[in-house]
Amino acid sequence: MLAVLSAAPALVLVGWLLAGLPLLLLGWFRPFVAVPLGLLAAAALCRYGLRRLPETVEATARQTGAVVAVALGSAVFNAVFHSEQLVVRRDPATYAQTTIWLARHGSLPIPRDIAALGGPDPALLFESAGFYSSGGAVVPQFMPGPPLLYAFGHWLGGLTGLLLAPPVLGALAVLAVAGLTARLAGGRWAPVAALLLAVSLPFLYTARTTFSEIPSLILIFGGLILLHDARARLRAGVTGLGYLPATPSAEPPGEVREAQPRAALAGAALAGLVFGLAVLVRIDGLRDVLPVLVYAGLLIAMGRTGLREEGRLGLPLLGGLIAGTGLGVAAGYLLSRPYLKYLSSSLTPLLLICGAVVALTVVAALLARPLAAALRRVAALRWLPEIVAGLAVAVMAVFAARPWLQQVTRVPTTQADRLNALFITNTQRANGLPVDGARLYYEDSLHWVMWYIGVPAVVLATLAAAVLARRLARGTGFGWLLPLAVIGWTTVTTLYRPAITPDHPWASRRLVPVVLPGLIVLAVWGLRWSRDKIRRMGYGPAAQRNLTAVGAALLVVPAAVTSIGTAFTPVERGERAAVEAMCAALPEQASVLIVERVTGERLTQVVRGACGVPTAKVAPLWGSDVAGKADVLRLASRIRAAGRVPVLLAVKGSQLTRYGEPVQVMALRTRQDERSLVSPPDGTWSTAIDAWMTIPAENPPPGS
C-alpha cells in the first residue's frame, strides 16, 4: 500500500497534464472535456504503472498508517491556515489569476478586448505584474503546468477549491518523499522523513498557496520512485501479467517469462516522462533533470557492454525524458514565450549545457566499450572511494564557510536589477542592516538549509552522501546512483546560485523541489546507517532504540522550532472577500481604466479575470505614477461611445476627485510574509491594500 500510495501522485499529475495540455493548446480546456480525459489518462497510467508492483517497500501497517496520518495532518493543517493570495504582488497570485482565467475560459493567451475599451489607443497599457502584453494579447508570466493542475480545484469549488488545492498537493508530496525514503532506507524511517518535511517552514509556506514548487517536488521524486520500481521489476521478474514465483527456484510460467522485461521497460519510460514533465511545471526543471539524462546514457552504455541487467532500461528512460521535456519546452515556447525571453540570460546557458550533456551522452554511449575499460582502471585506484567521500564532505564544508569567504553582489544593469536592488535596500532598512542594494546574500544559502531543517539533519545528510558516494565508487549501492546524483547536483547548483530575491520566507521556496526533501531522505538514511553501525559494534536493541529516538528528535525538533513562529499565522487572509466585494461594486457593462501605477500592477488582471471586466491601465505622465487627465477623459468618452460604462480605479480617492465622487471599493488590512535577510522568519508583517473607484461624469468639474 505504501508503495502504491507514494507512486500514484506523480502518475495522476502526469495523466492530468498529458490530457490538459493539448486541450489548452486547442483552446478546449473545459471541465466537461478535460475532467473525463484527465481522469481516464490518470487511471490508465496508474493501472500500468502500479499493477502488481514487486515488493519495493517493506513496511508494516503501523508504519504505513503513520505516513498516511502525517500526510492527512499536513493537508488539514495547511488547509486551516491556507493563504488567499489573489491580489498580484508576487508569484502565487500570478498563478492564481492565471488559473482563474484558465478555469473560466479554457484558453490562453488572454484577449485584451480592446473594443470594450473604445478601440486602440496609445495610452492603453495591458501588461501588469506577472502578465506580459505580447502579440496582441496578455500572456501569463510562468509555465502553464501549475494552473492546469490548480484549475481542477477551481472547477470543484470555485475560489475555495482553488485556494485549498495547494494543501492537497502538499499531502501528496509528503507521500512521495516518504515513499522514496521507504524504498531507499526502509519503511520504519518513512514516517520520520514525512514528519520532518511536513513541519519544515519552506514546505508549510509553499503548501498553503499556489506555488509551482510542490507539484515539481511530486514529479521529481515520483520519477525517482518509478525508476526504482522499474529496476525492481526487472530484477524480480514481476510484470503487469504475472507475479513472483512461489519459491525462488520455481520457474515462472511462459507467458510471464516472455513479458518479464515489458513492465520494467514501461516503468522506465513512465519515469522518464514524469521527470521530463517537471519542465512543464517549472522551467528550472531543465536543470533538475540533467542527471537523469546522464544516467540514461550510462544505462545505454551498460546495455551495450553487458555490464548490468539495468542497461535495457536506458532507451525507454531516455525516450520518456525526451518526450516529457519536449512537451514542457514546447508549451513554454507557445504559451510563455515572453517569460522565456526574460530569462534568456540564464536560460540560454542552461540550454547550451543541456545540449553539451546530450552530445557527451551520445558520444559516451557510442564509445561504451573503451570508456568502460578506462573506468575499470579508474575504479581500481586504491584511494578512489575515500577521495569521493571526502569530496562530498568538502563541498558542504565550503558552503558552510562561504559567508566568511565571499560576499555575493550584483551590480544593477537592467531595470529589473534596479528594482530588485531598491527592494533589497528597503528590506535592509526594515531589518536594521547596512544598506547595500547590490547584496544578494547567496553566500548564506547553506545556512538557510540549517535554519529550516537544523544542523543535525545537514550533518547526517552529509555523512550519508559521503558513505553512499564511497559505496558507489566501490561498485556497490547502484540503486542510490540516480537519487544521489539528482539530490547532489540540484543542491550544489541551487546553493551556489539560488537566483531569487533573498528575503525569507520567500527565498526558502527555492529549497522545496529537491534540496530540502533530498537532504531529508539522506539524513534519515544517515540515521539508519548510524543505528546499524552501533549494532555492528555490539550494542543491544535498547541502545539502538535510544539512538533512533534521539536521532529522530534531533531531526524533527529544530525544524518545528523554526516553523512555529509563522506556522499558525496565515498570510494574505481577507483578499478573497476584498476581491469579491470590489467585483460586486463594479456596475454592469463596466470597462475599467486604472489610472495609477500601484493599483495597475496589482489589480489589472484581478479585475480582468476574477471580475470578468475588460480592463487596461492608462499610461502615466512622464515622471509620475498617475495618468494625465486628458488621456483619461478621452478614453472614458470612447468607452461610452462603445456602449459601456467607464470606471476609474486608483489607490487613493484624491487621485480620482477630478473625475467624480470616489468610492472606496477595497480596504484590506491583513498580514503578509516577513522579509528577513539574515535570520529565519519568526513572524509576519502587516499590510494594507486600498482601491477607490469612480464613474467619471460626462462633463467633469474643472481641475488641475
Automatic annotation (TrEMBL):
Superkingdom as given in the UniProt entry: Bacteria
Keyword set, alphabetical order: Membrane, Transmembrane, Transmembrane helix
Membrane-spanning residues: 29-50, 62-81, 152-177, 189-205, 211-227, 263-283, 289-307, 314-335, 347-368, 380-401, 449-468, 480-499, 511-527, 547-568
Annotated protein name in UniProt: Glycosyltransferase RgtA/B/C/D-like domain-containing protein
Lineage of the species this protein comes from: Bacteria, Bacillati, Actinomycetota, Actinomycetes, Streptosporangiales
